[in-house]
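Course assignment 3, question 2. Fill in each field.
Student: A.L.
Task: Predict the tertiary structure for the chain below.
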Amino acid sequence: MKKVVGITGGIASGKSTVCQYLISLGYVVIDSDLISKDLSQKGKPIYKALLETFGPTYFLTNLELDRKKLGRYIFENPLAREKLNAITHPLIVEEMKNLIKKTEENLIFLDIPLLFEAKLSYLCDTIVCVYVDKETQLKRLMDRDGISKEYALSKIASQMSLEEKKNKSNYVIESMESFEETKENVRKILNKLKGE
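Answer field:
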């Protein structure tokens, strides 16, 4: 019987690193961000809906979506963010369901950063949170994106706190400074998941 495991976390918490490690071990990871990017390509469903809703301002001269510009606008405008989510979430969820159905493996991972915020727990049999303390998260985000402390803090604050995500999850993977330690934490969770 298929088991669907949701993987969530906060921005710069190490979730992508954990998912890449799972892929390297041969597991299927369905990535909601990749689905979103694919459906935002020229002529695809999200692309068309974004053009209709937000107009050509957020598109480049070659008509590709200007992700940075739209991202900044969405980040600073909660109402626009709600509008965007109303457009994108149903299309992404539909594609995720299709991919789950097509996948033959018994253990499937869904990489969904905003799993709780988007109320997508129902897609999963169990949920794993990739957790890091706030100080490390802040440092990683500033280093990764080359942004100020204030902007990094506002980005972190725009998501549900990692503490809350941790409390809502069935399992927690501590994302350590040492990748070897993080991998060890992933292996421990895998053993528990396979033992259920």
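Instructor remarks: The chain has a mean pLDDT of 93. The longest helix spans residues 78-102.
Grade: pending
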